[in-house]
Amino acid sequence: MTTRSTRSPRRRTVIALAVVLAVLSGFIIRLVDIQVVNADTHIADSMKVALGASRTLYGTRGEIVDETGQTLAGSILLYDGVLDPKNVGPLTRTDDDGERVQVPWSQIAGEIAAITGQTAQDVQKIVADARAEDPDSQFAYLQRGLTTEQYRALVDIGAPFLTFDSHPARTYPDGAVGGNLVGFMGIDAEPLAGIEKSQNDCLLATNGALSFQKGKDGVVIPGTELEQPAINGGTLQLTINRDLSWYLQQLIAEQVQDMVAQSGSIMVVEAETGKIRAVAEYPTVDPNNVDASADADRGSRLFRNFFEPGSTFKALTAATVLDAGGQTPTSTVVASSRETFANGARVSDAFNHEAYTYTLAGVLIDSSNAGISKFSERVDSATRFDYLKRFGIGAGSAVGFEGEQSGWLRPAAEWDNQTTYNTAFGQGLTTTVPELVGAYDAIANDGLRMPLSLVESCLRPDGTVVEPTLPEPTRVISEQAAAQTREILENVAIQANYAKQIEVPGYRLAVKTGTGEKSDGNGGYKAGAYFTTMIGFAPADDPKYIVVVTLDEPTKVTSSAANAPAFQKAMTQVLKTYRVMPATTAATLLPKFG
């Protein structure tokens, strides 16, 4: 029999269980409402308290280095100072007496401004403007592009409402030295010229990102950070020598100014490999301050300009007739200073003289247009055209420099009566400095023309080394013809009227000059305006380096003699830089006349 006393506890238990179940059901219903039914609304509400944010992690653009690893272009860290306007206010500090004191925002603004170069009012206005636009604003730039020194000084202020975003910026330690070659970047970090642009695939970095959440006070919530790492760019090693380029840069600037020329350039190439060891141009551009240079001076004239080469092409004609025409350095022609040929073409020398019985060597020593024209008849025009193409004329170079041009050479079938002879001494066609150096490389390198190169390798971030793919060397002339042409060019260096000006004591040189007329843009030539060239190699008996010096419209001396002082100093410095041994044998003198 159940009594009232036994029913009462059981009843209370049932009631309590029902209450618990009711409460639990309420929690479950509320949980479903929060996490399922109204999830989006509640997430949005929570994000007002826990603010989602992200920060770019900047990858570092790769360095450009010279053949020895010295930096030509690198990256430094700059900092963007960021204020949190909502939380800007006074700071509590400990004074000299150990007392805790409150420093007002106006004073902190003054301390910040003293570092950034602004005024206290400027800094305060940044905060006031941000608050006026959005009272809850937690982001306003204090100043972008702060240096490391400024960054450290600002950190020492100890303001929690001042943070920093770091990012890499480009720097060029040598300034204008090699500026036309290395190129420069735009303000948006886009490569705009030179190696920076043409080799961007190697140098380009990939940015990463750091995402996180932060509270209303701007403090990052621990454990919410998620990082996608940045990937740095590769290291690009060039073939050039930084120290040699520095010297040649000063040298060509001096020569252009001394000769009152429009511009000038020097290029140095290693004969055996085709590697470009130095490039110097004036006027040039300082990649650290591009706006200081005129637009015309920001690219590389050396690669983008083409010109009539003048008498430097006599060496190519001589090599052709030695290789294909059965001639020798002492073969002869009879030529006066003015000659009229069977097809009606007329050719004149730069100086008056009677009919000489010139040797082939003598024609180049005196740089006789008439004499080389007569020698050119000993092979047909089609053959000469074929040899010019094999020398690389009109084909550009393997460098592939940004904006690089090619020379212009019409097929032999299109040569008129005058052009048939003019091409023998460098008129009626155009070339470029890289093409001309490549042609002389064939002479210096036993008849084998090496493709020019400017890039040694790209070292990828993962350690992979990528070397450029270059064309195969081109056999242009026989070893014998190359040796004979070198012997002729050495005699030019010994017997020409500028021989003393280019002499490098202890060394045997081979050289040729060219004075090319400049187009007036209307199918004729510009009066009194010339593009002058001096090109040569050393040692003449075992060529190691080719040096070419150009001047555009020198006015103090209008002939290629204007180039002689710079050529002599440039060649001397090249031989010293690479420790080339002096000659141990004497040159073989060739007769000018038969």
UniProtKB/TrEMBL annotation:
Its main location: membrane. It comes from the Bacteria. The chain crosses the membrane at residues 12-32. InterPro entries: Beta-lactam/transpept, Beta-lactam/transpept-like, PBP_dimer, PBP_dimer_sf, PCN-bd_Tpept. Keywords: Membrane, Transmembrane, Transmembrane helix. Residues 58-188 form the Penicillin-binding protein dimerisation domain. Residues 264-571 form the Penicillin-binding protein transpeptidase domain. It is found in: Membrane. Belongs to the transpeptidase family. PANTHER family: PEPTIDOGLYCAN D,D-TRANSPEPTIDASE (PTHR30627), PEPTIDOGLYCAN D,D-TRANSPEPTIDASE FTSI (PTHR30627:SF1). This is Peptidoglycan D,D-transpeptidase FtsI family protein. It comes from Microbacterium terregens.
